[in-house]
Amino acid sequence: MFDVNVALVLIVSLLVLVSLGVHIAIALGVTSALGIYLVTGNFIIVQKMLANTAYEALRAYEFAVIPLFMLMGEFISKSGAVTDVYMAINRGLRRVPGRLALATVLGNAIFSFVTGVSIASAAAFSRIAYPEMKNHGYHRGFALGAVAGSSCLGMLIPPSVLMIVWGLLTEKSIGQIFAAGVLPGILLATLFLVYVLVMAVVKPDVVGGYRDALPDVDEPVEVDRFSVWTSAIGILLVVVSVLGGIWFGFFTPTEGAGAGAFIGLVMAIVKGMRWRGMVEAIISVGRISAPILLLLITAALYSRTLAMTGVTNAIQDLFLGSGMAPWMVIVVMVSVWFALGMVIDSISIMLLTVTIFEPIAVSIGYDPIAFAIVGIIAIEAGLLTPPFGLLVYTVKAAIQGIDDSVSIMQIFKSSMPYWIIMLIGMVAIVAYPEIATYLPDLLF
Asked: Where are the chain's structural domains?
């Protein structure tokens, strides 16, 4: 039964704890425990609900997909394969205006598959691509905007951590969500490339003038062909075996993640990784994935608490009874995601909103798989939204010591075209859900 006072306590206490800087997992857990106690008045029930939720979450076979995909990405990343491929793309585009920015977008798309985490992509390419663009006379804001904007592909191109979390929260097929992200990911990457190329032609000064495209000036560093081919074939093998295996039903997403981690390990060994590097990779994944799993547990508990207190149904009734057109409901949800993206990270946003928003979207007749892609793009776009977009701050932090002259607002300004392109992508998918649902319908 819905209790307004309990609902206010649940929502306000969570917002207060988050605004005070309390870790989102702790905030969710404390708020959930308080809500359950207010409803039941019994600490034993609180303890049992927490224990049951944690047990059911940790024993779930699907939860292993997160650390396994992260392990795959860590092995491939440490092998240097992405850097090799980036340098090869850079050299291959040497006659094209804006080649370094174009190579950054393409490299970020590849790195997105390897890590599935946009923050990691932003940090890595700030170190890999920005010094090269700076040396070639690129406008610094334009260069960093390309890094920050294209790193958003990290959550849209499978295997994305956000896609996995969305599937776990909504109990939708992770394989279908992976497939749904392919065409929108290609669409956004293509629009990013077109934007960079147009800017390079219309305003050549932002890419260092036409010297950027001349083969005899600042010739790109010669690359080891064997290393490049080894890296490219290895990444292609991972894509075909992991995603192909999942899509065509040869194995589950968890089994695919295990296969990807094994192939990544073999690839890293071939590229020179030794025992110490393997141990460091495993420890690094543990440090990153453990908090995510804890977040999923407390989010599941918070979701149950909202359902128990009637808050979830009340919010859904508010939306459905408002008389708003379906597209207006989607606009409100996207606006909430943009606002939250200014202050907290992607996974936390998803944990707070998806279990409430997704049933509403389905109730108004929207396809759940297409809505997943719209939500993921919106949440990522929120990370570029001023004044607190986390991706922009990640880029700023990553270039400390490389170039301290670029202001945070300059990076925000240069990232806005990518934000607008993502908004266009969302509108396109809302208007034509087939962009996202075509491959899932074809493969599943």
From this structure: 4-443
